[in-house]
Amino acid sequence: MHCAGGAGPAVHRTILCLDVEGYGRRTNGDQLAVRAGLYRALRRALDESGVPAASCYCEDRGDGAMILIRPDVPKELVAGRFPARLAALLERHNGGAPPDARIRVRVAVHAGEIHHDDHGVAGTAINTAFRLLAADPLRDALRTSPGVLALITSGWFFEEVVRQNPACRAAAFRPAQVAVKELRERAWMRPPDTWPQEDTAHALRLLALHPGAEISVPAAAALMDVPDAEARLLLGDLGVVERAEGRYGVPDPGPGSGLAPQERSAALRRLLGWYLGTADNARRLLCPDRITAPPLPDEPRRALRFATADEARHWCETERLNLVAAARAAAAEGHHDIAWRLPLALWAFFFLRGPRTDWSEALRSGLASARLLGDELGIAYVLGGLGYASQNRWRFEESAELFTTACEVFSRLGDVRGEAWALHGLGYACRRLQRYREAVAHHRRSVLLAAAVGDRRNTGRALTALGYAYAGLADFGSSLDHFEQAHGIALEADGRTLGWTLHGLGYAHHGLRRLHTAIVHYEKALDVFREFGDRSGQGETLYNLGRAHMQMSRPDAARDCWLRALAIFEDLQTPHTAGVLARLRSLDPRS
């Protein structure tokens, strides 16, 4: 036999050793079945625990395995998530296997310096791990239990990793005196019986943190910090009621959360961050022209992405109650940086679809959170959001005050995009207050600021708003000119605002008494608003389309438009309802 020298330098590794109970008493066929089942469960448990295969070095030991894990993988995964997942997978394997192919394992975990050489690996730390694996207390614990996995860690690993990480649940471990060959150590052992009961209870406690009554699989995955596939399996194993496809009832938390404060806060933040990230991804499709708040320092993980606006809209509609509850929970639980961002991310859904009372409540809570943080940028953004919410309730003086304050803060902070956004809202409030010259001034500055930062889309929006301001002055020639400029930008840069430029063109032609042309543009605008699900735009267009039909002595067409507009405005809970009802009554004075 050729023996080569040259061991490599010492490298640090987490050491994971496994041994199958009663392996040698089985037939060759059963041993092969056990090995296949073990490695299948082992690979999946490591993967679902967040331990990449590329970070692992594995040596087969016949009746078990040794895995060395690189130091870039957090050690707590090996003592926390991994053994719980492996135990669940072995339980599932055993449920469908004949008695002699069932698997129960002892697992030892340690960490230290190891050397690679031509024959494999060596090191005192590896010896220690295998001595732990052979310890009588560990063998006895597995032998006397119906469970499938008994875990032992070195004293060092317990103190430095398990005790420091809530996910490892140190309270489930008990001390074990190990005396195997040269090793004399006080190790720490987690008995087999603690895996199913303890982890089930822990998962239920995590799920109970969810602020809404129903939770989706991806939200549960974020909350429990596991992959979606594992979350789905866990929800099934826990016996949680599946109320609809992929949606489960949230369990009753019972008295107290049963979670350490640090773990509770981290889990809730993962969930709230997931809702924020997914809502903002929906906003990018539903309302890409709206500016949004800067991202969180700890960017949400695994936020959903949507291929189409319809997908985004469906998610928002399905999660509406959870999103409102999440905004409340963020403020109540002290996650104030999420509390002020979340209602802004929900802009698209609540502005386009309603009901807007939920949005207003979330914004008010968000403003309180931004003020608690002393976050001036957050305050400015939420003031702007509240300005738009006030417009929805036709409180235009209040809206103008909110936007004026927001503009001042954005200007002081040097946030040009934010100032342009707030000026847009301020100009609209002035238009509704019939202060059209002020509106023209605000919209002109908004055009200049948006153009200065190369924001083509919002330059077009500001030009559209300027067109409406000139229409308020009855200067329909200037109004038409600005709508045409905005329409050109919308065609090349932003199909979503195309609806409002088409409506504006119709409005300008309407003011110039070109009713046939106005109706053509209104109908085109209506098609665009329907395509993008902008119900507010549909209602506004139907109202003005009805006016145009009435001026052309088409009362039946006008009535049809106004009835459709009324249904939309009533659903959105907007004050436009009164104006539409007045128009309908004018068609039949006796009603």
TrEMBL record:
SMART domains: TPR. It holds the Pfam family TPR_12. Gene3D superfamilies: Nucleotide cyclase, Tetratricopeptide repeat domain. This is Tetratricopeptide (TPR) repeat protein. It comes from Actinomadura luteofluorescens.
